[in-house]
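Sample pair:
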Amino acid sequence: MASGLSLTRGSTAVFPDEVLYRTVVGSLQYVTITRPDICFAVNKVCQFMQTPYIEHWKVVKRILRYLAGSINHGLILCLSPTTSLVAFCDADWAADKDDRKSMTGYCIYFGSNLVLWSSKNQCTVSRSSTEAEYRSMASTVAELLWLQSLHSELHIKLVVVGVPYVLCDKLSAVMITTNPVLYARTKHLELDLHFVRERAIRKEIRVQHIPSTSHVADGLTKAISCLGFPLFKEQLC
C-alpha cells in the first residue's frame, strides 16, 4: 500500500463486482496468518467489504502483485536462546478519515520469534494521540497476559530477565502507567488505565519507551514508504 494513501468511502466509482472483491479480500485474510507484513494493508481493504470502490480494488491488486513477487517469503520460526516475551505497541491517531477512529497495531515476540500481531481500528474515538496509544497498550497487555496463561497451561517455562516488556514510542503514554499525577486528565481512560497500571505495579509487565525509528509495530498502523518497508519487514520477521 502506497505511503500517504488514505482510503475512504465514496472516493471513486463503485467497483462493479462486489462478490469478487469479497472473495479475494477474504482469501487475503488467510494469507496474513503467515504474512504479517501485509496485515495493515489487508485490514484497510477489509473495511470496504460492503461497498467497495475502484480505488480500493486497485489497492487489492497491488497487494496481490506484492505477494506474487515475494511468494517464497513467510514467517520463519527458529530455535531461540531465550523464551522471553517482548511486545511492541503503536497507534495512529484519528487515522480513519470516515469516522476518525485510531488504528492499533502490536506484535509480540516469544524469544526471537514473532507469535502474535494485530492491525485493527479501535472501537471508540480517541481525543488525543496519548489516549490512542494507551488504548493500544491496553490491548497489547491483554494479549500478552493471555499468551502467558497459555504458556502456563502448556507447562512452558518462560526464561526471562525480569518481566515481559511492553515497548511504546509515546513517552506520555508510558508515563501514565507510573505517574498518578496525570490521572485527573485521563479519567475517561479509567478502565484501560487501571488495567495496565495494576499489572505494572504487580511487576507482571514492564512498560518502556522506545524510539520511533526502532519501533517494529509502526508498520502495523500506517503505510510505510518503499524505502522504509524492507527494514520494517526485516525487523518484523
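The mean pLDDT is 86.
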